[in-house]
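Morning run. Coffee first, then this:
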Amino acid sequence: MPLHLIKLAVGCESVKELKSWVAQRMLTAKQKGLPRRHIHITRMTPKRGEELLAGGSLYWVIRGEIAAREKLIAIEPFRDRDGIGRCRLVMQPKVIAVAPRPMRPFQGWRYLTEDAVPPDLGKAAASIAAMPEPLRRELRDLGLL
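And here it is:
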């Protein structure tokens, strides 16, 4: 059973904006001749890397709810210019919207077990995914979604 990570998407207002960020980073990578993979640098290296790379994803919390995920493909510990240990979380550059679930703020990242992950918003839920996020949040808060 794969293990997942969950992280706050600080400064991001919507899944659409997250997708735009990733697309811009991929365009920059292409222009520089670099591999097209989405990288997020974090301070701590996950100790359970094998479990994460066995099909795990990084779930993004946007404006107080788990809203999207990206599949993890590598975990690369390294030292920055100042000699401080860091870690690259390498993901496929495809943002997948998930059924929104409220999540309180936290620092860093957390592990998320398979039984706790929200389902992807597939074609069956395309109408929900197409809604403007403020409307979707309001409908969820009213108990209508």
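DSSP finds four helices and seven strands in the chain. Good start to the day.
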